[in-house]
Amino acid sequence: IVGTYEAWIGMREAAAEPWTYSWAFGFSIGTPAQPGDFRADDPGYLMVSTWFGALDAFAAETNKKVAVFAFDDPDGRGWYLGFITAVAEQGYDCYRAEDQFGIYPPGTTDFTSLIQEWKSYGCEILWGNSIAPDIGTVLKQCTAQGFEPKVVFATRGAMFYQEIVAWGGDLPNGVGMEVYWTPDIQNAEGIGGETPQGLADRWYAATGEPLAQGIGWNYAVAQTLFDAIERAGTLDADAVCQALAETDLITMWSRVVFEQDTQFQRVPCQFGQWQKTDNPWVWESPTVFSYNDFLPATADLIFPKPWD
């Protein structure tokens, strides 16, 4: 059984011997937690609610016309089909959604045909799910063709510093993306009392690189598994699975409780935005909108996106 709406996590039937339990950590795009779960009715654990919460502050300053693009793979296509429904439900106009316009094949390097239609329709919001090089190419070609939407949100390929730097220039400025972990997270603790800020400091000392939010994700996954093995008292798979099912643990990523029907650990989702800093690495992605008081916003959202 696979957790809520993450096409790239699943792939169950593709396994030589299909597995039964996922114990996956991941985002829930729009499927709420079941009644009784501590995350039930909490928009801070839903990607769609969080992203529209950020956008709604400025929605009245746009025409609500949305251009959507997605890489044609399970993640991109699955996201697109779910997202266009959410867009319509929120009162936005997704351009040619009924035609799945904007889903493009791997290897595409020229997005002119998409950009010109978006521009002609007057889209003021650009939203995409793709790999980092393609997002950069789309933004460069938007600039070259005079298409400058007020809002750019990009999931998957806009999450990490090394990827957005490769776009060049100031293209990352104001691009929104999901944030799932920062050293500012509260009600979180690692192994032996390690703190989120301590983990971030050790990362910088070891690499000299700016924060990679994935360190919090990966740390919490390992921490949860170690805890389950310790409680099981054995490496027997069935015993460890039972221990995982009973997990209720404060981790580096706050509280971990697997949903009983899906064996899924839905994670908190915040909205971040790439912004220029005075630090040597230039770009950071602070949280600019959050429903979660334990992972609060630390900067103001830039609107509209600068294109200079």
Automatic annotation (TrEMBL):
Which residue ranges does UniProt annotate as crossing the membrane? Answer: none
Q: Which Pfam families match?
A: Peripla_BP_6
Q: Which UniProt keywords apply?
A: Signal
The residue ranges of the Leucine-binding protein domain are: 54-276
Listed name of the protein: Leucine-binding protein domain-containing protein
